[in-house]
Amino acid sequence: MKPDEWERLLLGVTESVWGNIAHLALKGEGGKPVGVGASGDRTLRADKAAEDELMEALLRVKGTRVLSEEAGLRGDPDGGTLVVVDPLDGSSNFARGIPFYCTSVAVVEGDSIDRITVGVVRDLVNGDVYHAVKGRGAMKNGARVKASRVKEVSRAVLGIDMSRGGAEFVERLAPLIGRAKRQVHFGANALELCYVADGTTDAFVDLRGSIRITDIAAAYLIAAEAGVEFTDAGGRKLRAVFDLEHRLSFVASSNGVLHKEILRLCGPAGLGRA
Amino acid sequence: MKPDEWERLLLGVTESVWGNIAHLALKGEGGKPVGVGASGDRTLRADKAAEDELMEALLRVKGTRVLSEEAGLRGDPDGGTLVVVDPLDGSSNFARGIPFYCTSVAVVEGDSIDRITVGVVRDLVNGDVYHAVKGRGAMKNGARVKASRVKEVSRAVLGIDMSRGGAEFVERLAPLIGRAKRQVHFGANALELCYVADGTTDAFVDLRGSIRITDIAAAYLIAAEAGVEFTDAGGRKLRAVFDLEHRLSFVASSNGVLHKEILRLCGPAGLGRA
Hints:
Two copies of one chain form a homodimer.
Chain A: H1 3-27, E1 33-36, E2 42-44, H2 45-59, E3 64-68, E4 72-75, E5 81-89, H3 91-96, E6 102-108, E7 116-123, E8 129-133, E9 138-140, E10 143-145, E11 157-160, H4 167-179, E12 182-184, H5 189-197, E13 203-211, H6 213-225, E14 229-231, E15 248-253, H7 256-270
Parallel strand pairs in A: 3-5, 11-12, 11-13
Antiparallel strand pairs in A: 1-2, 3-4, 5-6, 6-7, 7-8, 8-9, 9-10, 13-15, 14-15
């Protein structure tokens, strides 16, 4: 299928997921655990509902494999196109009633992060949609967006995920956090990366080494198309393996100048974790 | 005026503020700086609009003084009732397009934090309103709410504000952050305290020593009425001076067991800053 067709399909199906998840949230029913997913994480009813809907729509496309956090790898084993899905990023937010979670779908025509051709991240609270087709720029609700021009950490709003990092890990990030204008963390990394893409925040840093490619594939393309610098903690190009076992650390900054300062300040945190 | 009358007035006027701020946000006009407020902070058009509306409604009540971040102290100098206002908490979020900001109004019949009789915090993104009348419990959108029963930091979602704290300050908080299930920070402290009140999160910690009583007076009553433990970093009862000069540090936890562990883990950060 062509990128345009994928774009239309993904915009449509994620809109439908938004409607269904909003319905579950209203009824207060989506937060119930229903099992454990292929990734080993707990699956909520809302995770399952979002995944079922995405799977049904995506597996109808011939020659397609789908990799998802809950269901694992499905579809045509010889399929040339891989679709990478995180049905509900921010499940814990959903379960606790924090209004910040999203769904994330990316199309990959190959096995490297450069071969992500379409990415869609939809905010499942208000329906906002961030998306990109490779080479055509990043969009929010159909309008072109760009990363911010903030060039100093002391003027930057930084998203940093430190969940379950341990005291020593947090200590290593102290020079970065302590210098930032503001440290924020909302709890759904794909959507927080889209905030960097459209200039809402200035960077997002996750050096815990626990993120999966399913979590960030779509947001990676959207951010890259918006001009965001995206590397591992050592400043190297991000390398991805498209399965649920490999884990990543990354720094995403709105521009190269800010990126350099962030890498310098959190350098030691990254060594050994990159 | 009686607490019931204040309750009605504040619920009504904050609803109207919500409508007007939503309108400014839609037009993309509220983020323009228009001066510097009485507190020394930059005033945005949205701050000014929210404050003007609140001031007009509150100063109509006879025998009332109003203390607000932008305008300072206004109204009847001999007025026995003090109304404490933060027109737009989370101004920076508003300016950057992060959908998390609120308005906060508290009525005080005396000069201590125990004499706060009515508190209203309204989410200016979705209109949700948290409020309390002293002795009658805490409400969200008119329904009674309570703090969570999570008793261990390792299972807790902790809100922590570290903005501009410096590296050493962050290092001292590392044992707490590193142990938490999740650290979050959304950027509007009054609303984040209401999240503790209704069990959305489990605690909120701000030991920077930079919060004003105007920022948290309403949320303090709402949290206290929901069963939240609220002390300074040394575990002492919070003392407040109702002006714009005094600054506070505080720890607010959903219950006493969790509170004790948090104080123990962040103890050194609080010494000298409480």
